[in-house]
Amino acid sequence: MTSNLHISTHPLARHKLTILRNQNTEPKKFREVVRELAMMLVLEATADLQLAPLPITTPLAETTGYKLAENVGLIPILRAGLGMVEGALEILPSAQVWHIGLYRDERTLRPVEYYNKLPVSPTVQICLVLDPMLATGGSAVATVDILKRWGAQRIKFVGLIGAPEGVRRLSQAHPDVHIHLAALDDRLNDIGYIVPGLGDAGDRQFGTG
Known about the structure:
By secondary structure, the protein is of the alpha/beta class. It has helices at residues 11-21, 27-45, 82-91, 138-150, 164-173, 201-206; strands at 5-7, 51-57, 62-68, 72-78, 96-97, 100-104, 111-116, 126-130, 133-134, 155-158, 161-162, 178-181, 183-184, 187-188, 194-195.
């Protein structure tokens, strides 16, 4: 598909994704598992963060440890991306969180921006775009467009499930953006939903389906 696509092979990721796919999983459990799976995927997506040496003293001796040398920004795409923020913050408690609001026009399947709370200029070295579903890829491409215009240099997409169409679209528009997913599904249906997928991630998280 693309060398920038990373699919988690961790057994726990597959287990948790099965819970999310199950139509009988209730919103409370769904939110919990989204948080847990987001934590795992963010851990994988940040494996290349730069470190700086940090001299410390243990109870037994002086030694050299490490601290993060890069600031990370989390950009959840409203509203479904909100469910991934808590898990990401458990791994990166000092990360900055900004929100970009996009909704999909159900007639055209194109993203429409309605909210943007980015600061005037970048204050981080890497941005993680959080959105459970990479379906048509429209929202992801639009978000990366916004971040690049803002001045972001390193951007990664972290999602739960992707469709080949969405991965292809994001990769073609932004070949420098690495994509981290728990699964790559079969296709989109005629209304732009991932199959087999898990339904509407926002509705299932917030009980509005």
